[in-house]
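Researcher: Quick one. two chains, 843 residues in total.
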Amino acid sequence: MPKSNITNYSAKIESALVYTRRSRFERFWIELRKAPLTAWIGMITVSLYIFVALFAPFIAPYGEAEVFPVPYDVWSDKHIFGTDQIGRDIYTRLIYGARNTIGIAVATTFLAFLIGGFLGLLATILRGWVDQILSRLVDVLMAIPGLIFSLVLLSVFGSTITSLIIIIGTLESTRIFRLTRSVGLNVVVMEFVEAAQLRGESLRWIITKEILPNIVPPLAAEFGLRFCFIFLLISSLSFLGVGIQPPTADWGSMVRENASLIQFAKFDIFVAITPLLPAASIAILTVAVNFIVDWFLHTSSGLKDEK
Amino acid sequence: MRNKKNNKVLLEMKDIKIEGFADEKWHKIIKGISLTLSRGQVMGLIGESGAGKSTLGLAAMGFTRPGCKFTGGKVVFDGKNLTDMPENQRREYWGTRITYIAQSAAAAFNPAHQLIHQVIESTVRSKQKNKRDAQNDAVSLFESLQLPNSSEIGNRFPHQVSGGQLQRVMTAMAMSPRPDLIVFDEPTTALDVTTQVEVLAAMREVVKTFNTAAIYITHDLSVVAQMADTIKVLRFGEEIEEAETRKMLKSPKQEYTKTLWSVRSIQKPEIKSKNIILEMSGIDAFYGNFHVLKNVNIKLSYGRTLAIVGESGSGKSTMARVITGLLAPRNGSVKFKDKVLPAKLKNRTKDQLQKIQMIYQMADVAMNPKQTVFDIIGRPASFFTGITGKKLENRVIELLNQIDLDESFIDRYPSELSGGQKQRVCIARALAAKPEVIICDEVTSALDQIVQEGILKLLLRLQNDLNLSYIFITHDIATVKAISDEVVVMNEGEVVEQGLKSKIFSPPHPDYTKLLLSSVPEMDPDWLTNLLKKRA
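Model:
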């Protein structure tokens, strides 16, 4: 029989879970090494996009709105993907498009999270009539089809980049509101929040120190997904002509402007592919972001692989 | 003892070793334990949390939790080696020949289905009986488990029956396929004492009737004394000792077992009251239209402990909510040092908030998992006393020393603390505000007995050193005996009895107090049998 060397009880030696202390970076590195192939593909693709977006002026051979004499030019050494309807270099505009489309989508997503997250937390903590008013307002906004509503608002306020960001950000914040409110409600009933309330802590402390750190994982995952939807929405608005306005390069409007080239497929297959290039850029980025989100959701949900 | 007409060996576990994966490493959970069980034999597994009781119980089924694996030994059930066979063959045994009863029946039932369908599911699926026979059999099981309306109760949904009833329905579910072995994993830990007695009696009866072998896992010695033929004591994944129940209770061999036995020995001499620090008078409180507290009057004296005893739903915790201002009463007032406290939390001054602090039952959810011990203790210290920087750090270290921990704990997160350490940090958080009254809401109920003792001793010492007054809410009579000066017995929102400890614990008792006191299990294996005889 194994020996037992227990004589005196001491609180210090009670066995807790055996954890090694690791810095945030070390923990991140461990997760990274276990990341599946899809996550790697996603991460590499997204970093490429970010690189292109950041260094667009250095990578692009020409200026964003520089016009060349031949419109609808074929693929050549001078213009890798040809030129568009008024003779701008398509390759250059694809590169600048990354900067504009992604930049605006990221800004919009941030705005949506700022509004939705803040109001959602407010509703969770205050409950009562604040929650009722906010929630019903959100219900009303969500009841109207998003694309149509944004079309209406954009034609009222005009298609500037600022109004685009504010309108889409506000409309999309309804979904963030709902998510924040539901995950926040699970945290707000915990006794540590009650303890903070009993201490007389301010609303700001309770939001930023007690609740927010505990709901970051689901919100971060939602950020990735929401970014994709907003990105697609902006592209479709641009395709419809009310999104980002020329001469600013953007993938959605590039698809629309060059769409007619598809009918030339029987003469020059490459020219016909041209309008699909910006569409493909949109598709690939969306898939890549989703790869990362999937991986993130899997690790943050704490599921263990059964083996 | 039990009838042992069939002494054949049913289960044999040889040198079981199990490892679990956590924090990028494999850790040994079970370090080589052997166990033999004959048909009809009941074995109790006891030990503190982390001893490997549940892991061993599950291993008896040839099962390990996700993230765990067998690294040695074998489990032979009725002549078949469970550890060797593929999982789909093992499944044939689970739910039919070996069944499992979990601690929380509420979590084990699907809330969307009626009870009867869940009770007979595995019996019907394994084609032992057809649906009609299985249902009739289930009703007769309900009857022998003394469930009310045995013919109808199966048609209810899980939320429509009480916790004790649900636990018995779960026993019926486990018995339905007439298994050879049942694993009980702390089946009564979540129940009130008065309910626990009924459930224990019912379980013991069916196990005996069908000559089923059982493994009974618990950390409560007096419960295992009623149920088991033999007891095995575990610690840190190793076996400390095993013996026949009466022998084990009378003369434990190992030092560790002796400490387990002697835990419930603290007794605080009661001191008569002097001046009143906190008083509730004429309190009526409601949740919606539900009358939770009915004209409650209690008094707490300086430097004393007032214990509030009662079952769940008796309004104990609601009293704490009224005192702290979380729930405004409809009538009555709370006075602190002869001044009436505002009924609502937001109308109270910082000073009033500071003087009354609270400690919760579940230390896990009472601490923000994203804050370190320093943040958790330091925040109330700086919030109420305004200290910062080096002074704050010294104060936190001082508080850690007061609760028998040291500065090495300062940057740990709650997940890196044991259950007892967590509760100690919660105590330090309450102390940090320099309070005069601390409300302890079931602070020891979720802890093992040895740890409980440590916490109670700490609370008594702090009371002495800092002249604190406690309101101690609990359902555990042993804890009341250990810590209180005065006692209030609550039932259904009313005060049944109140007074000095010596008065409450000596006859004559009101009916409810009598029921409550007689339901507390004792370390005598005949206690349950005698009690049932007496009550009948």
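Residues 449-466 of chain B form the longest helix (18 residues).
Researcher: Thanks, that's what I needed.
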